[in-house]
Amino acid sequence: MKRSVWVSSAAVLGFAFLYLPIVSLVIYSFNESRLVTVWSRFSTKWYGELFRDPQILQAAWVSLKIATISASLALVLGTLAALVLVRFGRFAGRTLFNGMTTAPLVMPEVITGLSLLLLFVSMELTFGWPAGRGLTTIIIAHTTFCMAYIAVVVQSRLVDMDRSTEEAALDLGATPVRVFFDITLPTIAPALVSGWLLAFTLSLDDLVIASFVSGPGSSTLPMVIFSKVRLGVSPDINALATLMIAVVSVGVLGSLWIMNRRAGARQDN
Amino acid sequence: MKWLIGSSGRRWVAAVPGLWLLVFFLVPFLVVAKLSLSEAAIARPPYLPLWEWDEDYLTVTLNIGNYRYLIEDTLYLNAFVESLRIASVSALVCLVVGYPMAWFIARARPDRRNLLLTLVILPFWTSFLLRVYAWIGLLKPNGVINNMLMGIGLIDEPIPMLQTDFAVYLGIVYTYLPFLVLPLYANLVKLDNALFEAAEDLGARPWQTFLTVTLPLSLPGMLAGCLLVFIPAVGEFVIPALLGGADTLMIGKVLWTEFFNNRDWPVASAVAMVMLVILVLPIMLLRNAQSAAEREV
Fold first, then answer.
1. What percentage of chain A carries pLDDT values higher than 70?
2. What distance in Å separates the CA atoms of residue B279 and residue B87, rounded to the nearest whole number?
3. If A71 and its partner were Cys, which of A84, A200, A201, A224 is the partner (CB 3.0–4.6 Å)?
């Protein structure tokens, strides 16, 4: 079927819409003027400013720590959840299990954040743990919503996976644990990598949930950005955004390139 | 099925994520439910306990005043109605903008699809907060769009765009567009080309083919996509806080103010409970739509 000009131009406009704000952020990050939207001349001074801002550096460090730990924890829990959903067939409580794994994906963040904070407060009153709010509580919160994303990513890979190698290994006498580590894990490795990266970015980006469950001294990068943005637009945020966009684009496009090359190699064989 | 570690091993594999979700996802809702029935107080934490154990008497005090307050003060009702309206209009606008994109990708050459899909997902990987922030620079009275329009002489003075409902709609459509395109694409890419060729051979015009073949077959994908936009948009906080004006009422923002500014935890909990009840139906619909979209191959 031919594609009409209408559809194509509408689609192109859609893509333009997605990228227009990002492009303008990047352009204005190199603007010399403090007035974010009045172009004076090319300058990289806001990048320098950014790296001299202790508040931002401190918050970035906190965020990176939280994102690394939560993404890793979520990877383990999310992969287990995906295994249970794809491989365990029917079991008592499956509907509940399935609901609990997928609901965090769509749950409005204000609800997740509030409910977790109230849980932490009640737990502290009852068991004395967690004492106060800080890194630990943010990590728990992020792990919980990140594992849902990882479960979805890993689940779709497990469903597509060809089981014959696993069955062959089992027939040849390998223990199920060994089959899992030697065959299943390497096969789903790409999904694990992209799941981890997704979880990492989501954690790095979360403002609402972190605001509820953080304590004094554990302000994350989005929290600092949000308070800065509320006070007015500041050009060093543009520089920060550009850096983050650059890292993410290189990462995502790079992995796409690698995957395409591997797919190409597979076709050649 | 013994492929994993025998039945006791399997129980452990299921128990670890299951317990985690139970404690950190399900139980918290019960805590919110409990707190929504307690009374606010100037204390740490700022509410009174629900039950007290004194000698042989267990006194349980349930305060439904928080819910009555939500009904009596029209602010909350308005905020709920407004949120539902903004979320549903945004979902429909996403559908109009996203449908051609999903169709375009689904009908592109197979080797190009991955790149196009990545282009849809890429913004989703870059910070949501910063992408919303980018719109401030574009929409401000002295922002890029106004400067451009004035530069080409189309307008004489800036159009107020920031801190309006328009900016909120724009922000929601912009940030949630990938959520609509992806499930819709997954649905559209599965449709058999033979169907369209048959329709064309039988003399259907392109728009007839679209209305009678494509549209009905892509309903599950459309529904899943719209709900994926609608559900989180109802409780959205960041977009109305940054792009909306003081009079933009959205329930996520109300909950936030109630919790952080007024420190009224019980009322914030009651707002959350009502929001949950409202969202139960869409969430169940979403599950059905997603499994329907998966079945349709």
1. 94
2. 12
3. A200
Nearest to B197 among A1, A10, A36 (CB): A1
> ipTM of this model?
0.87
- Hey, what are B209's tokens? 């083919």
What are phi and psi for residue A21, nearest 5 degrees? -65, -35
From the list B196, B232, B238, the residue facing A1 with the nearest CB is B196
User: Nearest CA to CA, how far is B272 from chain A (Å)?
Assistant: 6
Helix (H, G, I), strand (E, B) or coil at B23: helix
d(Cα A192, Cα A203) in Å, to the nearest integer? Answer: 16
| For residue B46, cis peptide bond before it (omega within 30 degrees of 0) | no
Residue B18: list chain A partners with CB under 8 A. 81, 84, 93, 97, 100
Enter the DSSP assignment of B160. Answer: P
State how far the alpha carbon of A47 is from the alpha carbons of A53, A61, A187, in Å.
10, 17, 41
Backbone angles phi, psi at B108, to 5 degrees: -75, 165
- The model's pTM is 0.88
- What residue has token string 């914030």? B268
